[in-house]
Records
---
Amino acid sequence: MSSWASWEPWLIGGFIALILIGFITRAMFGDRARGQPRCFRCGHAFGRDDQMTCTECGWTARSPRDRLRTRRHWRKALLGGVLLFSSAALIRLQAAGGNPMFLAPDRLLIMLLPLDPTADGTLQGPIAEELRRRLMIDELDEAEVDLLFDRIATGDGWATPGSDAWQTRYGGLVNAWRSRLVRPGDPEAATLLSIPPRIDIEVPGEWPLDLTVPAELDVEDWWPIGTECVIELRWKHAKDDGTSSPPIARIGYRNRASVGRPHSIQLPPVNQWPKKPTIEATVRARFVDAEAILLADAGIEAIGEPDQDGEMLPDVPPFASMPVIRSSTTLLRPLDLVLPDATAWTGDDATNEAIREIFAPGLRRWEKMSRPYAIRFDFRRAADQRFESTLLGFVVEIVERMPDGTELVRRRSRIWMPGGMGPNGNWRSRWGISEEEADALARAFDPTPGSSWFMRIRGDARLARLARASVVNQGGDPTVFNRWWAGEVTRPLRTTDETRRPFIRRWFHPDGVRTPEATDQPRP
């Protein structure tokens, strides 16, 4: 907004205010007798000095001084006051960009928040938007913040905490507040941690009823930034029956991550699902100091013990010491699908070279991090026409060849995606949690020990099946993918020391970092 545009409402408003103030002043003080006796009611001049009754309207003065009083025009003054107040409100509204909520008191907005209208239940309402603005510029005092977050944590009759309606009405407010540095001892941290996360499990719309169902787990939370948790998934009916069963999946999650991708899990075949396929998530969270996370982003190692995934974090309570949070989601049962057999295809020289180029960026390292390694890959190259109708499931291994010729796998990653172009452009790629030996990988950046390093990429049938499920989830036709890449290529390992912000992993194994095994047992 230009300087003149920002001042224009106030200049015009000041001119209008001066006119209305003059009008009100004249109505209250302008009609004076000026030494001439007159009727106070109608203003008719008295003819004789001793006349006390008006011959026009019959008003009788109580004393000679009554005939000299200033007449007050209260209706005109009231009208002028209303116009002045209305003009001030409109000008203030115009200066605020036309937002009527700008004029409402803080506590009134908080009280009316449960009634905030939302557009089709998807867009944040005007009351929540105004409160979000005031939160961001620190207009609310401490008591008002406490009152607001008590309302957010409890929700209302139309929006229970964690539901879609709650997310629409209150989610933006939480995101505005948690973007600040919230420390473990702050009352807001406890309030946010009490809000159950939203657990989403995406399954293919169609899938063979007798095959294990590849699914994708995603989490949306409203906790302070820097919170991590362990999630266990079970069928809800098992808990209701009082039976104890091992979890379908158990995984660690942190809400401060470089890539917000879902995690791949395996569900039982559809013909083994309960009648009502509701999965309950048992969540045990712990709060990591946001200051340490910011230091980690800058590549500065925090003082403390390594967490379950090898990241250096300050002293934090174990997961078992935190209150258990429960959240549930009901799955849509896939329709039966007959899949054609996909034949193994070892590729040719051109496709093998294209696969080498996908992983050309190689291995990255960030200094002063306890888990500093990550591989880079460019799957835009997999959109090439030569990969049409091909399922790509890669086991990517970083191998150290010792001076005696022994080859040892030091890192193993699993990545999958459909080949070619998807219905909406490039297909999305997915990958699992890598296995690695961090101490050994340090030698890949040091040429003196005498060993040599290379990258080996192998096709894998189980990962190719995950790629087929990804076709369904992304709106493609899985039946056109009639082959999967079953070849194997190697390339020299390229290493790069990174200076950009470190890579923070979203998912981790609760029991610690896994190391590569002697034989490959894919764990998607």
Note: Confidence is low (pLDDT under 50) at residues 299-315, 518-524.
---
Amino acid sequence: MKNTLKYIALAAVLVMGASSCEKFLDRPAEDNYNSQNFYQDADQCIQGVNYLYNSPWYDAIRGFYRVGECFAGNYYMGDKNPYMQFTVNGSNDELRDMSYSLWGVNAHATTVYNRLKQTTGVDKAVVDMCMGEALTWKAFAYFFLVRSFGDVPIIHDMNSLIANNSYNSVPKAPKEDVYKYIVMTLEKALTLLPKKVANKDGRIDYYSAEALLAKVYLQKAGVTGTLNQEDLDKAAFYAKDVIQNSGRELLEVYSDNFRMQNNKNLEALISWHWDASCQPWTTQNSFQCDIAPKGFDEFADTWGQWAGPTIALQDQFHVSALENPADRHDIDTRRKATMLLPGDVCEYLWTTNGGFDYLRFFYDENYGPSGGSNASEGSLNSPTGAMCVKFLYGDGEDHKAALGVSAGRMANGLATHVLRLSDVYLVYCEAKLNGPGTSTTDALALECFNAVRRRAIPSWTDKTSITFEDVFKERNLELALEGDRWYDYVRVGYYNTAFAVNDIMNQRRNAWDKSLDDACKAYYNGGAWDMSDIQYDEDEFAPTEAAIISKLGSLPFPSEDVVYNQKLDQDVEPFDFSTVEF
């Protein structure tokens, strides 16, 4: 926790100088504040919490995607990738950065909260709202930490740790205690946050925190090894309140969730809000760089051509990159909003070019961002034949049309929705079940499940009973590539490890045995579609049961943290909740 405590020590200083570049909120004109003159009015209180919506999370994105999607079998990054092989260790850069970023969120959110507690002479409703937002972000950071690393330290009072010089000897708390702490934090946030019906301002409100609390209770329900009915009931209770009373609703078109003009919408409950101006650095979204192929935008900042959505995810949608595009009849509209396959065109990317044509991008040298020269490698290099669509904003013209300003190198303003209403619908459904092999006819669960399916498949015939397996699969179809799938396996793995492990081991996680490039190029140039000599590579790496179990909710801590705080390598110690005061 060396860098963890670095964040804690610096948070008190950084919070005064950091302000979000995001334009989704008004900010005072002043640029520099110190601890004596800050938080003097409502605008400054709001500014003081704004940056929690982006900057501290920036370094978590690569890690959360590799953990959430590569481990889960949704995203392929090569058979030697440690996230594909379940061999990641404490020296892994992305895991380290994710860990430090999450602890940084905790440090900053706590500092902001404590500063706001000392504020006087400002509208109490505004101060309370900002305090509630800070606590919700703190809880979300811990939610990522406990689901990823398992037993982790609970750092509630940073100042006392620094004062008594005990910051390098904080013991791990059992994950049951960590979940309890998250619940306590969110319960406090609920007493502070306003209830905004049909909230569309992009800020966390009561129902945002309540939705997260429902998801926490569902995850917590099996943490002791058996499902706790009281936790399931609470998950259902809080989810139901959000569903019925928040005024939130699903967007009519699924793909609209991931478009910049909908950065704030009625389905998005909690989001990271980014700004392309990147002043300061880390307030911007850089995710397109990692997942888009070379040449995708005009800023020479994309390098994701050697990765892509897995064949396992294609199987989930009942499609294949080997299928003749003319014969492809996938009926789930979420598929093209999740990944592109040969022959696909995404109409809402590269709009000045009439949409992004997946094959033309590689084989037409005059086809490129903003009508310019294409800088792609001229070949389809994805080992799975697929390309991620979620989290792509397009080119500079797309960005300008949506937000009024162009994107920049490694910088865009596409919001990242980390908790959507459809997720809460499915949380309710799962909370009304009792694990694998069970079913329910609960009226609201059916209403929620069918609403999610009906949006995705207009011809859908409503179910009159749903099983756990229905809901578990639906979560992946709805939330695939949003950084959450691995945590579904962690949740079920708490109480039914065999189900989680078997599901992963039965995935087609590897690549095709040959490149699709020659066949796709011939097809694009007018030849027949012929993938007859390409098949799934059965000889590539397949994870073992032991390897999966070793990482299921218990990732290794960064190596230098273990050296710095040797208690991270020792047994857990129960947390003393009598020390918690908000």
Note: The two ends are 23 Å apart (CA to CA).
---
Amino acid sequence: MQTVTLTIDGREVSVPEGNTILQAAQKLGIDIPTLCHMEGINEIGACRVCVVEIEGYGNLEPSCIYKAANGMVVKTNSKKARLARRINTELLLSDHAKDCLVCARNNECELQDLAAKLNIDDYRFEGAKNIPEIDDSSPSIYRDMGKCINCRKCIAVCAKVQGVHALGAAERGFETVVVPAQHYNLGEISCVTCGQCVVACPTGALTEVSHINKVVRAINDDKKHVVIQTAPAIRVSIGEEFGMEPGTNVQGRLVAALRQVGFDKVFDTDFTADLTIMEEGYELIDRVQNNGVLPMITSCSPGWIKFIEHNYPELLDHLSTCKSPQQMFGALAKTYYAEKEGIDPKDIFSVSLMPCTAKKYEAVRPEMFSSGYQDVDAVLTTREAAKLIKSTGIDLKNMEDEDYDNPLGISTGAGVIFGATGGVMEAALRTAYEVLTGEELEKLDFEDLRGTEGVKYASVPVGDFTVNVAVAHSLVKAKELMDKIANGEIGDIHFIEVMACPGGCINGGGQPRSKDPDIVNKRIKGIYDVDKKMTLRKSHENPAVKKLYEEFLGEPIGHKSHELLHTHYKKREK
């Protein structure tokens, strides 16, 4: 590999040829601020806050896109660079909403942080302003274009990472605006509500639709019995919002904190993740044995479901009919749980704590009222839950561990690993093997299905039968698989897992924002560490799930299961 050597702020550094000045500075630990840059995704030099001075050059150059060269002498902190950086930031602020105190991104805004770092304490420039556009048409994502700085991160992530192309730039010059296709509202187009744009946005231009006040009102209503379920990925990510290392398991502390917030019962979505494996596993067995539609594809990621409804409606029959664990839990909370506790379902307010913005959309789908009520009344993202906990003065870091409530709080390691890409498939194989063979699986870890590389394939002997599976995460990779199925190119595959977000739910659109390039792997490691320490690691061994079938459901994929736990999907316009 050829390298180039340059000097930055008086220090010599060698980097691979083709690296930018920004990358070279980062190698030296020199901080050059950026607002629009996402390495490998959005490298356009739009915001101009990363400009540096290069000896012998007449103009300042954006370090995020300017290539390092042999003998180059760079000053990142010269008077000229500092002045330009400050002016460029002030110009961004001049056309920006001035409601920081009530903005969803207050104290978590990259523009706000940069202004503070540059000691900007006044609005020097006043002039023409764009008329802010508010778009509240989506049940998941809120757009406030008065806070957009045209960094194009959302456009790049939507196109390159997800392949959805829901957003683009329109008009020119000062009138340039980021908008959904053909100036429609977000809720009117084929946006899948995955929220990756929300994570990428440096300001409050894109945020999740907040359910915090709705949840607080329910908690304060003495007539309401408020229950909350927490998704598998939350336990190793919410700690980041309280200064803990990514991947730290805070499950017990989270349960304690949510009780102090005021929830009447704290349950575990892992319980219905185990239930999903039972229903999905038996559905797969039925399809294989009775010439059903194969490959069967998982249906627990609502962003993925909306993507296939818009883009591959001819392949809808391949989807499992199982609802997601969130929605299975919601249906059971207002039927099975209500019956056991003697509570009128109309008085139960069911909340989910999810790493995902698309879960807000999923909760209001018309198919998700099988209990006779809206099965899940409100969805909090990880970020929202952290805000709610902090607002009550609770320090999660110093809570004492408490256990989930029963009966919907008992789970297995198989339910936990739902949070990582490949986890649903691995959990399904643990159960399918033992159900079909009647033998105990010697090795529970399916290493070939783990990791964050692209599409993964594996063949697993199950008795005399070999199950061929595939795993994809991010909608770009899902599209790759769907095109192969549509074109008849895919081999003898029986089961496919698809997660809409890169890395799976662990990197969902509602998770804590991080600039750590290894954040996904750290969270995934945390998930698998939890699984290894569990006493029960197979869904079919969950005693609470067994009791649920005995007392209420009867049998997997039976009549009552189909009424409450299964659904259908529909073709949508592209």
Note: Residues 269-289 form the longest helix (21 residues).
---
Amino acid sequence: MLTVKVIKNGSSVVVATEGVIDTETAPQLGAALLELDYSDLTLTLDFDKTKYITSAGLRVLLIARKKLSDDTMRIVNANDDIAEVFKVTGFSNILNYSLKKQDTDDCHMSFKALLKKRAGDGTAYVFAGREYTWDDVDRLSQIVADDLAKLGVKKGSHVGICSPNSINWIITFFAVQKLGAIALLVNYGLKPDEVATLAEIGDITHLCYGAIPGITDFGIYSSALLDGRSAVEYMYDIGIGVDFSARLSEYDAVKDKYSEMYHSDDPSVVIFTSGSTGKPKAVLSSSFNLLNSVKAISIECNFTKEDRVCAFLPLFHVFGFSSCIGIGLLYGCVSYIPTSSKPAALIELIRDRKCTVFNTVPTMFLAMVQQPGFTPESLSSLRVSVLGGSATSESQMTMLRSLLPGNHFCNIYGMSENAVISMTRYEDTFEHVTQTVGRRVDGIEIEIRNHATGEKIPDGDPGEIFIRSKEMIVCYYRLPVELQPLDDEGWLATGDLGVILPDGYLKLVGRAKDLIIRGGENISPGEVADAVAQLPGVADVKVLGVPHEVLGEEVAAAILLKDGETFDAEAAKQTLSGKLARYKIPEYFVVMDRFPLLGSGKIDAINLKKEVLAKLNKG
């Protein structure tokens, strides 16, 4: 099939073709060219979207060329395959043509191609005190790719990676990419049955596993995955006890294998949603999707090759993947992978390695600065930290800024379906940083819609956040079309409630599913939480709805107190009466020792609600 478009501008004519010019389609191009007036013609043939040309097409070009000169007929945007046809047929001496400019933007490269480009750039990762260059990662991943290929992994295979962060995780990921397979990133903190559920959802046939916390009997673990419930057929050990470096001598035997390159838009990664409010979904993405999100962050954070990244966040999470894989690939900087996620160990790593970038969730940063041995000097090398996963209160941000005045804290709003949607900027006010998630990043469109009707509502009114961008999710793997998140215009419903302020900043006010409906009144948990967070002694708060026989739901606030503080519920209600309508004031205040967390660092909403209901005897 061929599409021919003729654009006339006086005596200058551009003929743009799309498709293949062969025996079947060449007459179509010939007919379009015959209709032109050649008396005073300057002809440009734009082959930007033309894939190939055969001898039949060359005859059409020759006929046109006989009527024109080198100066009045030219071909632009010819790809390498078309240029090769011109050369072998001698038409390179007849036609005036130029090659299509190759896109040098790294975001338009596959993970495989970008790793190849990085080879030779020096140190890529440091793990357990050992340095690994980009060459090391390239060679070792080639060896692992050969292992996986012998187990049946090929282009399009679904390979799960379920392991704590390690250099072996990184090597395995690139091995999967070299084969054109899809890497499905699995939370290593899940129980065997939960991993089996993800394997079933994502059609995982091969599971690469590391040391799984809490698993002492691997036989039980493997039997849960190999019992036929899921598609898992093979399990491949990538635990820290496996030293791939000891196999470097095998590289020469496999270096010329698996040379096929892939497109940046090819599906290459699946990141599972957390399932904090329901069954996890498999978010299918490409390298283009994920790397462009990293680039959007870097515009604000100014990442360079000189940066040293403390890559703490779990790699199975979109935020961790972007921080540990994406930043290093795009900018060639060194990433330090901690062997422990304990706050004291992270402080030691940042201090000793002079890390400049530490992206994390607010709860981890707060835990670090509250360590007995913490001093501001120990984290003084940090220049930027992107905070995501949950909000940071005014008091928390005030403390972090006072302790680390040389570090720039950015708030980010994103999701598995689109890693970054909005973020705060360097020049933003304190109010912007503590009360909003910034402005939309380049390439993102945001609309606020009525949650019930789906109609767009004016800025300043709260509603559900919808987004649209080229970096967005490909789809939810294997879900029926009615459950796919995109509407017929390409907008994605985030499930989050927000409001666009007059200055264009986005403020989150809760989850659509978390709306509390009390006696017919809709209550935003985020609005109530903001007010409760300002009460004396409150360190953190999560507001949720609990069952009520008459009203349907009542408002409850689960709170964490600062060290040594006590809480008076009646006094709190009195204070809140000056800030919130009566129906929004929590009926229950539940003091917690800690909030249950998911592996991603987000609050586990399902288990938190169970704990609150148990404390209220409403379970």
Note: Residues 2-99 form a domain with the Transcription Regulator spoIIAA fold (CATH 3.30.750.24).
